[in-house]
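Hi,

Apologies if this is the wrong queue. I'm a grad student, and the batch job for Na+/H+ antiporter NhaC family protein from Anaerosalibacter bizertensis produced an output file that my downstream script rejects. I'm not sure whether the problem is my script or the file. Here is the sequence I used:
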Amino acid sequence: MALLKLSPVFLMAGLMIGGFDALIAAPIATIYAAIIARSTAKVSFQDSLNSAIESVKEEQLVFFILMMAYAMAECFMSTGVGAAIINMALNLGLTAKTVAVTGLVVTAILSVATGTSWGTFAACAPIFLWLNHIVDGNLLLTTAAIAGGACFGDNIGLISDTTVVSSGIQGVEVIDRIRHQGVWSILCLILAGIILFGVSVGMGLPNVKADGGEAIDQIPEEVWQNLEAERPSAVTLLNQVKEGVPYYMVIPLILVIGSAIKGVPTLACLGIGIVTSLILGAFAGTVTNISDVVGDEGLIFTGFADAGSWVIVMMMWVGAFGGIMGRMDAFAPISNFIVRKAKSVRQLMTWNALLCLLGNATLSDEMAQIVTIGPIIKTITDNNVEGSEEDMYKLKLRNATFGDALGVFGSQLIPWHVYVNFYIGIASAVYPLHKFQNWDIIKYNFMAMVAVLSLLILTRTGWDRFIPRFGLPSEPDVKLKKEGLATGK
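Support response: The file is valid. Your script probably expects a header line. Output copied below for reference.
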């Protein structure tokens, strides 16, 4: 009976591994879950529908944040914010020894600015793979570096959909998340950069210098056509990198980050980013017509449409799926297993982390993992740990970090994951001189390795207490309940 209740998860995982998009797999799995709930737990279809709707209702604020986030990403990619960031880095001068490290840092900053790892990789792959070609760097090292950096903002970005959704599921504020894991995330980036540079030096790479304009000139015409079809804003960004934009276009990013640190609400931070990028873009000449902003094909429209056409609809279906699975208490066997194995709160939290990794590998989609496994680890923690409201909130922050970090960074270490397949597709399209394989993204992805391993080790050992704001409360401030009630019954 327990396996039958879990079979909708296996169905969703099978569909996604088989190549179905989450937008198709989730509705099929949701309908099947309602049938299983009816046959195993005597849950009527009306009750399943009510549970699905209630689950989706909890995500309403997230939907608005996502629409604004996508709109701001379009503005940053089109008005010159992204190009200014890239040009500031490129003007420092690159060699084979530094191209991978620079790619890591630039993509990390750009991903925070735009909130999208896929968009960041699509925009930066043409620049850095051809720069790497010019300076005779190590192609796989550079490819893995920009892949890892592109996910940095997905893990800590104020406007990242995975950051927003993982925080919403655990009931924590996005800004609190950023404060909680900010130092840890930056330390991971620094350590990954040091390793990349050390490996570059160890490979004996040359010291030939190059510039972004030269790299862009070498991009083949078919690559431009592919980018125009798949990511038009990336074409705009590349042209701006070549032609140049004023450096003051980085101000919107600084204002957004500063506002977030000051505790300004997420929607307000996004609004600040959109408005300032458009105003400064008008002075820079990158915004010339009001219809380019608010017209039927304008930046705001495109951002809202991109969010609504896939991610929000997918989230609604997966949220409905989670609501029905929760209604029939499908995850009780998993929860009970973890509770039996855990002898302390730290052990329980480590099991939560491992469950996120397992879910990510099974579902092959980081967002599906976040919305499917997120409610499970929330229930496990809420129903089996007791402590003050403040300490319980810290555990929720860590659970949100698990879902997000082990989703986006963990995905880059899973060969069959949709993340890896997307990156391989982009890299192959923009640099046809090499036949990319899935392991090419994994082999030198030190950013993903450092993030995943450090999160697991710090959580389990308690060494997270040495990182500001990142330490978890310890026993006896928090402790396991004497009688674990993993499912809340």
